[in-house]
Amino acid sequence: MKNIVNSKLIVFLFLTLTLISCEDDLNVEPNDVQNVDDFLKDPNNAIQLVNGVYSKQLDYNMYSFSWIGITSIISDDADKGSTPSDSGVDKGKMDNLTFTSSSISFSDVWEGRYQLIGRANTALFYLEQFDIDETQKNRFIGEVKFLRALSYFDLVRCFGGVPLVTTKIDINDSDAINTIVYTRKTKQETYAQIEEDLLDAIERLPLKSVYATNDLGRASKGAAQALLAKAYLYQEKWQQAYDVSGLVMSSGQYALLPNYADVWREVGENSSESIYEVQATLTKGLIDYTNVQGPRGTPDLGWGFNTPSLTLVNSYEAGDLRKAATVMFVPSVLWDGFIAPLTWTNPRYNYKAYQSTVAESWDGNRGQTAKNLRILKYSDILLIRAEAAFHIGMTSEAVDRISEIRVRAGLSAVTSVTLQSILKERRAEMAMEHDRWFDIVRTGQGPTAMSLDGKSFIVGIHELFPIPQDQIIASDNRLTQNPGY
Q: How many other CB atoms are found less than 10 A from the CB of residue 267?
């Protein structure tokens, strides 16, 4: 299916972007200038603009091999896996903390997020001009601002302060490119932009329950509040994190699933525990997420990377149901009846990334998976609430939230908590979900946690990743490098 629009609309795509809806590819082509007004009157075109931002999340340089490398393989939760001779390009260096500014994983993550931000800025520019229902327009703007904030949240956690590009940039405007695209802002300024986008999105977005069935998975008010609470947590704005996480809890939109193991299975997609997840289908899947982490050997279900570490395995309390739901042990019988054989290369795999070929949607194409990727979930909000509560002296609230999580995991409730016990609970609940590295960095656990895993965390360097060297070169050294790289 194709829509024909003016060549000026091609500029917003930087001559490369294809807008993708849930079911169709929509190629934007140049045509007569007279069609622009018609384009801006059709709400379906606005939907395509917004869907084009969402669809970027499915690309390889968003949440696939590189993201897995710099958020999980690098941490004490996981090892590189695969085979000793297969380095995964730079994943062995991630595992050993010997990465450099030339490591391709950092380039992928940087480029993917800024490509999404570029789509978001362009969508916002044209959404303001659409002659459509104002309520619908406001919702679209809120969705796009949430997605832009999510990309900046990933960037600031990885690199610290980054360039803040919040408008559509003319690719021929060298001054704007040099002063905006190639000029880093501070960490504080980056978080301020995230907060601004999310606060605006909160005002515009509906509750999750308002969405029709075919719109499930779109950003909601609760998603924007949840991400804002998390951004506050990372800045140690404890009272704000406590208050906003409370808004998510009191909204009546979310609840823990009874069975922890269901959260990452197809049955748990867009469930009561889901706040925001990347939507994938058989026709438009998430590229190489499950494939990268699938068991390697005979039968071959994937590349075998990102295997749970013994450090993680040994960190669980006896009786914790989350261990068996997170770590796929070899040999064993899997939840769908499939036998994990000794002919697989590694002794453990990431169970949360497993997609059943017999009990879930499957088309035989391992390169794309119909499995949704969980980004924000309700248990994370309970943990944010507990940690923030502890810091502001609301210990009874922290005890209640930690107990709620533990009881679901088959453990006993607690009568008291310490910061260490809260963070231990966070690790068990969120293991292999791409938060662990950022958690040990933000809480100062890096040196201790990594030494227990046999690796050296260098204080003053490893708190941030290097700005990709190819970006520094492209900027003619206008982008400044992080310390130690």
A: 13
Beta bridge partners of 215: none
Nearest-angstrom CA–CA distance, 97 and 91? 10
Question: Which of 202, 252, 196 is closest to 225 using CA atoms?
Answer: 202
Which residue, 333, 379, 372, is CA-closest to 355? 372
Cβ proximity of 328 and 356 under 8 Å? no
Residue with tokens 């260098």: 458
Residues 404, 381: Cα–Cα separation, whole Å: 12
Question: What does the mean pLDDT of the chain come to?
Answer: 92
CA dihedral of 147, 149, 153, 154, whole degrees rounded to 10: 30
Q: Tokens 């809480």 appear where?
A: 443
Instruction: DSSP for 397-445, please give it.
Output: HHHHHHHHHHHHTT----S---HHHHHHHHHHHHTTSS-HHHHHHHTT-
Q: Does the global pTM surpass 0.85? A: yes
The pLDDT of residue 183 is above 70: yes
Q: What is the separation of C-alpha 211 from the centre of its chain, rounded to a whole number of angstroms?
A: 22
| pLDDT of 480 over the 80 cut | yes
Size (the chain), residues: 485
28 neighbors 1 (Cβ within 8 angstroms): no
**Structure tokens belonging to residue 353:** 């990334």
